[in-house]
Amino acid sequence: VNASYTIIISNNGAVTDNYTLTIENINSASTAVLNQSSITIPANENRSVMLYVTDDDTVGEYITNVNITSDNDGSISEEISITTTVYGVLSAYIIYPESSPPSIYYEAQPIPIQGYVYDELSNAINGATVTLEPITGAYVYSCTNISDIGSGYYNCTKDSSGMQTSEYYDIRINASKSYYHNATFTNSTVFLLSVNQEANLTLTKSASVYETNGTHIVYNITNTLTNIKGTSTQTNLTDPDKQIWNLGNLSAGTITRSYLLTFARALEEYQVTLNKSNATGYDVLYDNSLFAESNQPNIIIPENVSLRQLTVIKSLVAKNDTSTNITYEITIQVVNSGFVSLENITVNDTDINLSTLINLTKGASWDTTDDLLIQKNPQPFIKEFAIATASHENYTANSTQQNISIDGYGGPYDVVITSLPSSVNTGQSITGQVEVTNQNTEVEEDRTLTTWIEDVNGTVSDIDIRTVFVDINDSITVDITLTAPSSTGTYYFISELTWPTATANATRSFTVTTAPSVGGGGARTITEVGVSVLEVENITCGDGICNLTETLFNEDECLEDCGYDCDGNGIGDSWIRCTISFCQMPDDLKKDIITLKNRINVFEKDVEKLTESGVSTQEVLDLINELKEMIDEIEDKIAHCEFDEARNLIRNAYVRAGTTVVVEKPVIVAEITGAAVIEREKLYIPWKLISSIMLIIIVIALIIGGAYYRYEQYEVRALMLLRARRRKLERINGMIDETIDKIYLKKRRY
Q1: Are 309 and 218 spatial neighbours (Cβ–Cβ below 8 Å)?
Q2: Which are the contacts of 558, defined by CB distance < 8 A and separation ≥ 6?
Q3: The CATH number of the domain covering residues in 2-86+663-747
Q4: Would you give the distance in Å from CA 356 to the centre of its chain?
Q5: What does the pLDDT look like over 212-241, one tens digit per residue?
Q6: What does the alpha-carbon distance between residue 564 and residue 655 come to, in Å, rounded to a whole number?
Q7: Is 303 helix (H, G, I), strand (E, B) or coil?
Q8: Is the peptide bond before 97 cis (omega within 30 degrees of 0)?
Q9: Four-way CATH pick for 197-304: 2.60.40, 1.10.472, 3.30.310, 1.25.40
Q10: pTM of the full predicted structure?
């Protein structure tokens, strides 16, 4: 960016004098030069010199000091400090997940996200503050572990545990950095988050009598492997009593592998404990290694000399496993392993409420199957299954005792709101500290913590949903920030955590009040974007003070309708009333709205001057009406906290305000001794009283080259007219009776 300044030097003395001009500092600017280093000025006349500052398209501040010294009297000198500030514009977008077609992820699966940040010159921007946010409907999630990997790329991995499933997600990237305008961009319909598909293997091993004779008994051994959901790859089933089976990919479902084992019958009955089987696999989707181990069956080998012999086998197969219970399929088999037929055999098993009479011929068998639902506890526990019995007269045969470990589902939890402000202004953030305690000594799991604000009628105005992990018998504290409602009154800050059998919650009330009006006596200085900086006095209007965040050119405007319904009663309020509303806006939006309103004020007061450039009066009036409608829409977005949408509309309004009115000849008469700050799109001029030498310096700020914007690919020239009150200028030693300040900004791309 090149900036040129015209410096007008006045000789207020009685004789002709020669002045020497030197540049004391260029402050890392590429160049800062004067078109002449010495100038002769007759008495009571003035002359001008040019200062040129170049920044080579690097954002930041460049302070240039110019010293002016009288050759006749070296004690007479003046130094001017001119600040050139260059701002850039950030842009950003999402690299992946790719949205065409939308990617598919599953609950609890990590989601890699990458964004890219650059400026209007297509330079990659490192060191920016970046947020990456998956969004679906009203749910906004943050990816907190963002890494700046260089070359403009920012990475993070989002754990999708606890996020809404069966929903399409957008991803929003926000970027900010010093001397740059912020950027926000949203990729729509980037990915679909489906329900949890994490593979989970369960394995049971059972034994049943296949055949018996006087000397041997043959058992059928069955391994039942179940995958609850998802897919297990590279699946192997290993049974030390037999072999290894390579099963490959195992989708949701159940497979069995069976074989026969033969045992010799001895003089006395004895038991054999089989080895545990195990299964391994790999879940590609969740990058998890899978492992399951079976129970360890005990089988009975009956004696070989008995005439009356019964063998009872009780088999267990896990059938359905949920967070709160597990169902086992229990099979009771009774085998007549003796050498005589038996009648009226009583079979009992309390686990499945079995009590029945059966008849068995020699070598025959009988079986029945039923389900047992076992309720889980918060803590893991060992389930002791009942012993099944088969009795004939005074003879009883028993099954083996089987014990299986049942997983716990966790809890109980406790939720306490340890800290919360008692009151907050409407629309402001309110942060509560929520303590979550896991009272379980053995189970640790991710849990969903939901926090929201509701009114006395139970209407929710804001909500936060996140996943928390609390170690066993431990607590964590979470800071949760929500936005207070826009209406005053009493509200409730509620935090809730749920586990399979109960819910813990905490509630604290707070009051929403209205922010105090802005006011006060005495003189104040207003600094606005794109308008002159004036010293004005507070103007008393009725019972209040005129809102000094607006530039007012006469006292009557203080009571004018500001065009915004601040209190929601359907009637536009005065600037005094609207002070509260302005105080609640983000600073950048407040600044931009004021800038646009002042441009409209300038256009309305100088329609005739603008038409001198060849633009018709109707075109100017149409532009003014269009800008007013755009501002109404922007304010509506802000009132509904739709700040990103408001920023997009503000960009469009700046384009309309800057490209429709074009004036070719810049003519400027102004007085300044402060600093001129040139931004790529706006001009700020602070004013103050000069020294007794009354060196009048007029600064003309012309931006010779503007930046190339991706969203503005055409030439833009903007007009902003500055005015100051006559009485303020009369204070400057009566040197100027009337001043009309005009500043024209020209902006065109390289």
Answers
A1: no
A2: 539, 541, 546, 552, 574, 575, 576
A3: 2.60.40.10
A4: 64
A5: 887 889 999 999 999 988 899 999 999 999
A6: 23
A7: coil
A8: yes
A9: 2.60.40
A10: 0.35
